[in-house]
Design goal:
The protein is of the alpha/beta class. The chain has seven helices and eleven strands.
Length: about 280
């Protein structure tokens, strides 16, 4: 079978898998099987991240995202956030459980002193604490809610990110958007910001086989709808095509520089079908 490819139309977005698959939670639907023990993809060292940001700036990137694993486990995440905010709007994807008052103070100071925006995306999968913690681990809900509150109290407006993992358990007539909107409003946050994402068949949700893209499916397709058409990801081992596939050998485009990763990427994984069907869901 011929594997289709996607061109890099422009490099607008730099993702940095700063903690690899090292996380303090073990979510049942994690797309890269992150967890606290023996992460299969290691964290990046601080100098490597700074070099990547510098190269990205020279190549004209317009956005930077930090992801993992859990980015706030990195000992220098605040320093690295400061470096990112010197060159582009920056987003941190987090479970929120490590955002203390002190961390929130520092993030607010960084946001206030930067010419670019700082976005914090906090993952919550259900408005019901029991259902959420069944997916994300005991106590995850209350810690994430507290993170929303401490960030909001310092003038930041975090984005709540939910997957559709529990959509089938919604009461009849209820919508995810409305449920999360009402939850955020109940916290006193008057401008709710939310992002709902599909569940990818990868990581802990990976099944056996699954549909793949074909060249015929992509005939006439608008490649700008795919994340990999404008994104590259720095993670352990090199530069990868997209944050969903970071760390997987077939998604690696370069072992060294971003510039060397300016080439088409294989659309070889079943997760590529989800992007094909739903569009560029990873970005804000």
């Amino acid at each position: 079978m011929t594997i289709p490819t996607a061109p890099l139309l422009e490099l607008s977005t730099l993702w940095i898998q700063v903690t690899g698959t090292w996380c303090n939670l073990t979510c049942t639907h994690c797309l890269n099987s992150s967890g606290p023990h023996n992460p299969w993809l290691k964290s990046l060292d601080t100098d490597m991240v700074i070099r990547s940001i510098k190269e990205g700036a020279e190549l004209g990137i317009k956005e930077i995202y930090y992801t993992g694993g859990e980015p706030f486990l990195h000992k220098d995440i605040l320093l690295l956030t400061a470096h990112a905010l010197e060159v582009a709007p920056t987003t941190i994807l987090t479970n929120g459980t490590l955002i203390t008052d002190q961390v929130a103070d520092h993030l607010a100071e960084l946001a206030q002193n930067s010419p670019y925006s700082l976005e914090i995306r906090i993952s919550i999968d259900d408005v019901d604490p029991e259902k959420n913690d069944r997916i994300r681990g005991q106590g995850a809900f209350s810690k994430a809610i507290r993170a929303l509150q401490v960030l909001h109290s310092r003038g930041l407006l975090p984005i709540v990110t939910a997957t559709e993992i529990l959509r089938d358990e919604l009461p009849e007539g209820s919508g995810m958007y409305e449920q999360f909107r009402d939850l955020i409003l109940s916290l006193g946050i008057t401008k709710p910001r939310m992002k709902i994402m599909p569940v990818f068949s990868i990581g802990r949700m990976e099944g056996e086989g699954g549909p793949l893209l074909t060249p015929e499916m992509l005939d006439g397709f608008d490649y700008s709808l795919l994340q990999c058409s404008e994104t590259r990801v720095v993670a352990e081992g090199g530069v990868y095509a997209c944050p969903i596939l970071a760390g997987l050998p077939q998604a690696r485009l370069s072992e060294k520089s971003l510039k060397e990763a300016f080439k088409p990427c294989d659309l070889y994984h079943t997760a590529c079908v989800t992007c094909y069907e739903t569009g560029m869901t990873c970005k804000n």
